[in-house]
């Protein structure tokens, strides 16, 4: 059971669908495994929950 995980800011449903399809197809081709064996987890992080260089992204963007 291969797992692909991506953490990002908010994504639209269309972006999630495209990422899931593209990641799965590419990984299946490279690893020579069926697409049905992959799990994709998309984790959305609010900008106020991520810090870079000691500053919250919500304060930068």
| Rg, nearest Å | 15 Å
Class from helix and strand fractions: alpha+beta
Mean pLDDT: 96
SSE pattern, N- to C-terminal: EHEEEH
What's the CATH topology label?
Macrophage Migration Inhibitory Factor
- The CATH superfamily title: Macrophage Migration Inhibitory Factor
State the CATH class. Alpha Beta
- Regarding quaternary structure, how should these chains be classified? single chain
Based on DSSP secondary structure assignment, what is the total number of beta strands? 4
N-to-C CA distance: 37 Å
Shape: elongated
> What is the second-level CATH architecture?
2-Layer Sandwich
Low-confidence stretches: none
Q: What share of residues is helical?
A: 25-40%
Strand order of the largest sheet: 1-2
Biggest sheet overview? 2 strands, parallel
What is the tally of helical segments?
2
Share of β-strand residues: 25-35%
How many structural domains in the coordinates? 1
């Amino acid at each position: 059971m291969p797992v692909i995980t991506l953490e990002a800011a908010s994504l639209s449903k269309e972006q999630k669908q495209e990422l899931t399809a593209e990641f799965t197809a590419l990984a299946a081709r490279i690893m020579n495994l069926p697409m049905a064996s992959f799990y994709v987890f998309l984790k959305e992080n609010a900008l106020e929950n991520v810090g870079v260089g000691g500053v919250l992204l919500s304060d930068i963007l």
